[in-house]
Each structure stands twice: as C-alpha cells, then as structure tokens.
UniProtKB/TrEMBL annotation:
Keyword set includes Acetylation: no
Keyword Nucleotide-binding: no
Classification via Pfam families: I-set, Ig_3
Domain Ig-like: 47-133, 150-243
Protein name: Ig-like domain-containing protein
InterPro entries in UniProt: Ig-like_dom, Ig-like_dom_sf, Ig-like_fold, Ig_I-set, Ig_sub, Ig_sub2, Zig-8
Transmembrane regions: 260-279
Keywords from the named record: Membrane, Signal, Transmembrane, Transmembrane helix
UniProt-listed GO biological process terms: synapse organization
PANTHER family with a match to the protein in the record: DEFECTIVE PROBOSCIS EXTENSION RESPONSE 11, ISOFORM B-RELATED, DEFECTIVE PROBOSCIS EXTENSION RESPONSE DPR -RELATED
Length: 316
C-alpha cells in the first residue's frame, strides 16, 4: 500500500508541476511576477508578417497614402519604416526620425498593423518602403508606393478672343484622377472668381467619368475689363490657365494680317500701268488667252511681296 500511495503522490506532484509550467509559459508569471507575454500559436515561434498584407499601394498626388505592415506575434519587438531610395529611417514604433512632418506611423492593435502615413503625397514620394522588425536577424516587408499625377488642361487655345457681350465658357478638364477634387477654384488675374451674381458668372463642376472631372466657368455678357488671365485650380493639384481677350468691335492683331497690302493696292495700280507697256515691248506678244492670267499675276506680285515684308518685320 505504501508503494502505491507513493506513486499516487508522485503523479499528483507531476501534474501540479506541469500545470505551473504551462501557466508560466502562457502568462509569464514565474516567481510571482505580473509581466504578460503573448502566447505563440500556429507554426511560428516568433514574429511573422501576414502573407495576406498588401505590398502595392497607389495614391493620387496631394492625397494621403497609408502603407500597412501587418506583423503577427510581435511581442516586445520594435517596428521601423525605412525609405529604400536613401536608406532614411522614417519611424521607429511611434517615434518619427525625419524632419518632414508628413510622415507618421501608428499601430492598429485590432489587426496588429503598423501603418506608415504619408500626408499630401508628392510625386517624389513614389518608391519602395521597408517595414523592418527588430529581430535577430532583422525581418523585412517591402511596400511599393505608386503616385498618380492627374492631367489638368483648359480646353482650347492658350489665347481666346471673344466679342464683348458674347457668353464665354471656359472648361477645365481633369483626367487620370483617382479621386474627384473637393473643389475647383477659378482665378482672374490671381483674384478668385466668385459666383454670387449668377446673372454675370456661373461656376459648375461635374464628374463625367470614373477618372475625369470637368469644371466650367461661364461669363455672361463679358466686357473689356473681363480680359486677362484665367486659371482653374483644383484642390491639392496644379493649375491650368488661359488668356481671355474681350474685344469691342475691333479684331485682334492675329486676324488683321495682310490688310495693309490690300490698302496699298490702289497706289500700286499706276505703277503697274507704267510697267506693263515696257514689259510688252521687251517680250514677245503672248497668245490672247494668256493675257488675263498675266494681268492677274502682275497684280498679285506686289501684294505677296508686301505680305512677306510684314512677316519679316514681325519676326524682327
């Protein structure tokens, strides 16, 4: 009986010891301490990157980008974000190590994700970023950031000519945009255009396609003082501009080319009349059917020469 009782007591002591060891490993309470450690589960015995985490992020110029780094079973290891193109350490845990305040890291505990935030993304921010865990040896997860730069243009020529009183419609088209701009401001000679009186000015904005937005500035009954530089400026993007010329009956210089030659034609007719008999005496007589063509050619030569002189003067 004594031998059997000894075996029972030994078995009971072994169970108690095993339970205590399990508690120490799972809760870190050896020696009565209160330090809590995460239990390792699955095939991994330490930190590891979630294979389902994205490694390719696309953001539009001027918006915020969020680069995720999902680390499981991190325990007390630190997480750093490094910019690969210059090996610059951006953040370590929640501390930032770059003067550029657009960069910040934060932890989403519910998903074990250390996220690098890049505010107001610029084109030069594109590239590879490394999420590094402070194990030995180091563990790294790489994320590619792509920056989309929308295209902005005002439809038409860079100089627009309109007659006073004629309604003007300026269209600003934004393409290749992942997000619709929050607003499109219009400026006239660097002063913002406001549409308080819609009988004079009207401003519209419409999303016409998944990546295209059109802003429209309509000027009713423009006057000469409405001439000048007009620019459209979408939120967080560059601007595009056009020069508007409001004319009061006159034509722009670009439309007046050649009129000077026509004015000189009456003065040239007496000279042509004196030259034609001289040419007739020096040259053999042409067939009668060629006389109208020769006369027309004689009238056109001075005009063409004068136009050429005008063009040469403008180039100078």
């Amino acid at each position: 009986m004594c031998g059997c009782a000894w075996r029972v007591h030994a078995f009971t002591a072994a169970l108690v010891l095993a339970a205590h060891l399990i508690k120490v490993l799972s809760c870190g309470e050896a020696g009565g301490g209160s330090r809590v450690a995460k239990r390792y589960v699955g095939l991994y015995t330490g930190p590891y990157f979630d294979p389902a985490a994205p490694n390719n992020i696309t953001a539009q110029l001027g918006t915020h980008a969020y680069l995720p780094c999902k680390v499981r079973q991190l325990s007390n290891k630190s997480v750093s974000w490094i910019r690969r193109r210059d090996a610059h350490i951006l953040t370590v845990d929640r501390f930032t190590f770059i003067a550029d305040e657009r960069f910040q890291a934060f932890l989403v505990e519910a998903t074990d994700t250390w996220t690098l935030q890049v505010k107001y993304v610029q084109a030069r921010d594109a590239g590879v970023y490394e999420c590094q865990v402070g194990t030995e040896p180091k563990m790294s997860h790489f994320v590619q950031l792509n920056v989309v730069v929308p295209k902005i243009e005002i439809i038409g020529e860079s100089d627009m000519y309109v007659k006073a009183g004629t309604t003007v419609s300026l269209k600003c088209v934004i393409t290749q945009a992942l997000e619709e701009p929050a607003y499109i401001f219009w400026y006239h000679n660097d002063e913002r255009v406001l549409n308080y009186d819609k009988s004079l000015v009207e401003i519209r904005m419409e999303r016409v396609a998944p990546d295209t937005t059109v802003g429209n500035l309509i000027i009713y009954g423009p006057r000469r003082e409405d001439s000048g530089n007009y620019s459209c400026s979408p939120s967080n993007l560059d601007s595009a501009s056009v020069v508007l010329h409001v004319l009061s009956g006159e034509q722009p210089a670009a439309m007046q080319h050649g009129n000077g030659a026509a004015l000189l034609l009456p003065a040239l007719l007496p000279l042509l009349g004196a030259l034609l008999p001289l040419l007739g005496a020096l040259l053999p007589p042409p067939p009668a059917r060629r006389l109208p063509a020769l006369l027309a050619l004689a009238l056109l030569i001075p005009i063409l020469c004068h136009d050429g002189a005008d063009e040469e003067g403008q180039r100078q």
